[in-house]
């Protein structure tokens, strides 16, 4: 299948109008219509609902859209990778991660690489572990920084020597805000917000919280920013890791005692052929972690 067909398809999906899509692609509307009809015939599926002036995706079209985007991304990645040589590096590094301050070590390293190889570009993807791992599996991400537990036998990996600490985000006028540390028993006095992210949700500590019928859990969240706004509105206290919540006025983070740490690993696909750029990144991250 010609990748131009995928670009045509995505243009219609984006514009929701064949005429506008044709204009953006600098081709005629009849040509675009004929190409999409041939694509649907080839697939044996109707990809668009054609009602009035608006052209929307069918359920099959939504599925095809996701795969078309992935294919075009992989094609571009391949072009980028082939443009690198051992002496002059080009291309992109695609990295996925959840919310973690340990990403700062990687971004510092990327900054160093950029100073030496200014032609290199970077693609960062933030998301929950399941989503990030799927993109590693399909080749859309080169590396991912994820919390344990993870199926290490499925990937090449490096254990990150530092870790994230679990605690509670609360308003500074909360009765327990004066304490240096928060105990498990203290949590009974709170209205808790807990993460739905599998990498946090599946930890023994959060599982214990959710299974404790006396614990008052009033809500959940997947990313911390909007949850921190709830906390700032005095709508609960959020269980979250250190240094990732935005620094909003009157919010403070307190560690839980005994200390609860979340460990991370940097993973990449097994049997992946490393480009010079990716090998450089891997060599440098190994050096960085060995010095920690």
From TrEMBL:
Domain of life: Bacteria
Residue ranges occupied by any HTH lysR-type domain in the UniProt entry: 1-58
The entry's keywords: DNA-binding, Transcription, Transcription regulation
GO CC terms in record: cytosol
Record InterPro entries: HTH-type_LysR_regulators (IPR050950), LysR_HTH_N (IPR000847), LysR_subst-bd (IPR005119), WH-like_DNA-bd_sf (IPR036388), WH_DNA-bd_sf (IPR036390)
Any one Pfam family match given in the protein's UniProt record, by short name: HTH_1
Presence of keyword DNA-binding: yes
CDD domains on file: PBP2_LTTR_substrate (cd05466)
Gene Ontology terms for molecular function: DNA binding; DNA-binding transcription factor activity
Gene3D superfamilies hit by this protein: 3.40.190.290, Winged helix-like DNA-binding domain superfamily/Winged helix DNA-binding domain
Family label: Belongs to the LysR transcriptional regulatory family.
Protein known as: LysR family transcriptional regulator
Organism of this sequence: Intestinibaculum porci
């Amino acid at each position: 299948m010609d990748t131009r067909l995928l670009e045509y398809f995505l243009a219609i999906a984006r514009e929701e109008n064949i005429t506008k899509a044709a204009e953006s692609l600098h081709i005629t509307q009849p040509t675009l219509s004929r190409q999409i009809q041939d694509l649907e015939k080839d697939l044996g599926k109707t990809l668009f609902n054609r009602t009035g002036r608006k052209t929307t995706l069918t359920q099959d079209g939504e599925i095809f859209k996701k795969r078309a985007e992935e294919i075009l991304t992989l094609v571009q990645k391949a072009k980028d990778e082939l443009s690198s040589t051992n002496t002059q590096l080009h291309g992109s590094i695609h990295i996925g991660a959840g919310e973690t301050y340990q990403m700062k070590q990687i971004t510092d390293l990327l900054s160093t690489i950029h100073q030496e190889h200014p032609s290199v570009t970077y693609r960062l993807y933030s998301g929950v572990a399941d989503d990030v791992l799927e993109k590693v599996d399909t080749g859309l991400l080169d590396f991912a920084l994820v919390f344990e537990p993870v199926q290490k036998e499925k990937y090449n990996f490096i254990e990150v020597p530092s870790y994230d600490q679990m605690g509670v985000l609360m308003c500074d006028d909360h009765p327990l805000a004066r304490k240096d540390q928060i105990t498990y028993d203290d949590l009974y006095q709170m209205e808790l917000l807990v993460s739905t992210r599998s990498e946090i949700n599946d930890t023994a500590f959060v599982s214990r919280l959710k299974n404790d019928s006396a614990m008052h859990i009033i809500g959940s969240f997947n990313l911390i920013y909007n949850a921190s706004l709830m906390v700032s509105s005095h709508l609960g206290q959020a269980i979250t890791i250190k240094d990732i919540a935005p620094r909003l006025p009157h919010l403070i983070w307190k560690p839980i005692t005994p200390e609860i740490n979340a460990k991370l690993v940097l993973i990449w696909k097994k049997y992946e052929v490393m480009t010079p750029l990716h090998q450089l990144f891997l060599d440098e991250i190994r050096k960085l972690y060995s010095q920690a």
